[in-house]
Write a structure and sequence with these properties.
Number of helices: 7
Shape: elongated
Radius of gyration: 23 Å
Helix content: 55-70%
Oligomer: single chain
Order of helices and strands: HHHHHHH
Number of strands: 0
Strand content: under 5%
Structural class: mainly alpha
Length: about 80
């Protein structure tokens, strides 16, 4: 298999990125849109370091309750009615 210009460019970019300092990487990352910064991360990695209430306040109440059965919601509410 021949070594192409595309191969060279890819390797050069990879080597260049590996040589960057943390400060350089931080500067580059700040220039990206948040959704681009998070690409490739698993959902659990995206929310690391956030408190549950910080995550939940981003959603409307009906979105927070999606996936819960009505019985589960009612049982939870009964705890607070006592």
């Amino acid at each position: 298999m021949t070594y192409t210009m595309e191969d060279f460019q890819r390797e050069f970019k990879e080597d260049f990125l590996k040589s960057l300092s943390k400060e350089d990487i931080d500067k580059i990352m700040k220039g990206l849109k948040p959704e681009d910064r998070l690409k490739g991360l698993k959902p659990e990695d995206r929310v690391k370091g956030l408190k549950p209430e910080e995550v939940f306040e981003q959603f409307k109440p009906e979105e927070r309750l999606k996936g819960l059965k009505p019985e589960e919601i009612e049982a939870y509410l009964k705890k607070f009615k006592r």
